[in-house]
Each structure stands twice: as C-alpha cells, then as structure tokens.
Design brief:
Layout lengths: L1 H52 L8 H21 L8 H15 L3
Helix pairs in contact: 1-2, 1-3
Length: about 110
C-alpha cells in the first residue's frame, strides 16, 4: 500500500518538476534572445555615436564624447551579462557591427 502511494507521489512530483523545468527553460531562452537583441542595439547605437563624433561638425564636442563613454559602459555591462546566454547571439550581425565600429574609429 505505502509503495503504491509513494510511487504515485513520485510520478506526480516528476510531472510537476518536468513542467516547471520546461517553463524555466522557456524563460531563459526568452531572456537570452532579449539580452542578445539589447546588446546588438546598444552596439549599433555606439557605432552611430562614434561615427557622429567623427564628423567635422561634432568632432571634439564634449557632450558627444561623454555619450560615447557612457554607452560604452552600458554595452560592456550588457556584454558581461550576455556571456551567460551567448548561444543565441546573432554572430553575423555582431561581426558587421564590429567592422562598422572599427571603420568609425579609423581616421578618415
């Protein structure tokens, strides 16, 4: 009798834990995609600000220079968090952004 009750409780607990695990994995996957998108968005914004700063009209502008510094800090923080969820990052898009960033940094 006790074996059957224990077995039924075990089955119920396993079903519940499997359901809970699937929900957690779904949430982690969503977080992973969102962090990757956020990282790529901030990286693209950083590239844009650097290219704006390199324009003759804005070169040397202290507010834009401060903005570049701040967005770099934000990008680095997101990158640290993103390393946990790296498998879902769009590597091709990141390579394009890195190339654009290098181009923006190079003197014209």
């Amino acid at each position: 009798m006790w074996i059957i009750v224990g077995f039924l409780i075990s089955i119920g607990l396993n079903i519940f834990l499997s359901w809970y695990l699937l929900r957690l994995l779904g949430k982690f996957y969503f977080i992973s995609e969102t962090i990757a998108d956020l990282y790529l968005t901030t990286k693209a914004f950083q590239v844009f600000i650097k290219s704006l700063y390199s324009m003759d009209t804005y070169h040397g502008e202290p507010m834009i220079q401060e903005l570049i510094y701040r967005i770099k800090e934000v990008t680095e923080e997101i990158e640290e968090f993103r390393e946990v969820f790296e498998p879902t990052l769009d590597e091709e898009l990141e390579e394009e952004l890195n190339a654009a960033e290098e181009e923006a940094e190079s003197p014209h």
